[in-house]
Amino acid sequence: MTYGGMDEMDNRPGAHPIEPGEFPHGLRCMDCDEPLGDGDTYSKRLVGFMLDDPVVELVCVPCAMCGDEQTG
Ligand SMILES: [Zn+2]
User: Fold this and answer.
1) Ligand 1 centroid – CA 22 distance (Å)
2) How far apart are CA 50 and CA 27, in angstroms?
3) How far is 19 from 27, CA to CA, in rounded Å?
4) What is the CA(68)–ligand 1 centre distance, in A?
5) Is the confidence at residue 72, as pLDDT, over 70?
6) What is the pLDDT of residues 41-67, one digit of tens each?
């Protein structure tokens, strides 16, 4: 399976700084429910594709690093 044009997609894991006002209602890690705010960093985890669109979860950086090792 191959994908074309992945270079432009911003769905790679990594630290993304939260810009002031980017999440006016706040942001929580979808894994550990850690609240994140201005000045924190979040990461994206690619969970699959909906049709041709990548589906990502917004998680905190530690969760993005440890992946699916934690279960339960
Ligand atoms: Zn987390």
Assistant:
1) 18
2) 22
3) 12
4) 11
5) no
6) 999 988 899 999 999 999 999 998 886
